[in-house]
Amino acid sequence: MKGRKRAAILISGRGSNMAALIEAARNPAYPVEIVAVISNRPGAPGLARAREAGIAAEAIDHKAFASRSDFEAALEARLEAHVVDLVVLAGFMRLMTAPFVQSWAGRMINIHPALLPAFPGLATHERALEAGVRLHGCTVHYVTPGMDEGPIIAQAAVPVLPGDTALDLAARVLHAEHKLYPIALARVARGEAPVMGERVEIAPGDLLFCE
């Protein structure tokens, strides 16, 4: 497919969402080519998974840098070397500085395990159970300087079932993430998720309901 966008996936751990995106990109009709996987943790299991899939994978250890901005400068250099159009965060457990985020405005996305704006941050499944919500899920959004505050691109909802533990709910949400992220990334690559003001206009397929 001509004109495929070149994407780098940033991870910190096992990379299950990364694997779903790589699988989607195997289809020549998919509008994104995964050209690199970069982790801030050299021991991240996802790096080996990426290499097994034939994707260039490397680590930039954030602990080796004196400051966050120094780490981001090294990351930016590698993104430029891979000629990246889009940056995709998939379990990347680092907060970015405002200048870095702004330099990738509209070109960097993240997936969060909750239906934003509910439950930003960590421990989303435990907090959802404590709140007694009946629907939980995940959100793909553009990255902005505020944590988990960027314009929402798409969401997937899952039921909260009687007797659910946080682990039960996490597994159900992760299954939904693997379905949603490739759809949302494709929308961004095709230019179908433009930001109007501070929001993305709602379109068919923005919300999935997953069993």
Could you describe the 3D structure shown?
This protein has a single domain, classed as Formyl transferase, N-terminal domain (Rossmann fold, 3-Layer(aba) Sandwich). The chain contains 6 helices and 10 strands, in the order βαβαβαβαβαββαβββ. An 8-stranded mixed β-sheet has the order 3-2-1-4-5-6-7-10, covered by helices on one side. It has a two-stranded antiparallel sheet with strand order 8-9. By secondary structure, the chain is of the alpha/beta class. The chain has helices at residues 16-25, 45-52, 68-81, 98-103, 124-131, 166-189, and strands spanning 5-11, 32-39, 57-59, 86-89, 108-112, 135-142, 152-159, 195-196, 199-200, 207-209. Helix 1 (16-25) runs parallel beside helix 6. 33% of the residues lie in helices and 24% in strands. The mean pLDDT is 95. Pfam families: Formyl_trans_N (PF00551). This is Phosphoribosylglycinamide formyltransferase.
Would you kindly provide a brief summary of this structure?
It is an enzyme of class 2 (transferase). With 211 residues, this protein is of the alpha/beta class. The protein is built from six helices and ten strands, in the order E-H-E-H-E-H-E-H-E-H-E-E-H-E-E-E.
Task: Calculate the mean pLDDT score and round it.
Answer: 95
Extended strand count: 10
Determine the number of helices (DSSP H or I, runs of at least 4 residues). 6
Radius of gyration: 17 Å
Function: Catalyzes the transfer of a formyl group from 10-formyltetrahydrofolate to 5-phospho-ribosyl-glycinamide (GAR), producing 5-phospho-ribosyl-N-formylglycinamide (FGAR) and tetrahydrofolate.
Family: Belongs to the GART family.
Keywords: Purine biosynthesis, Transferase
Active site: 112 (proton donor)
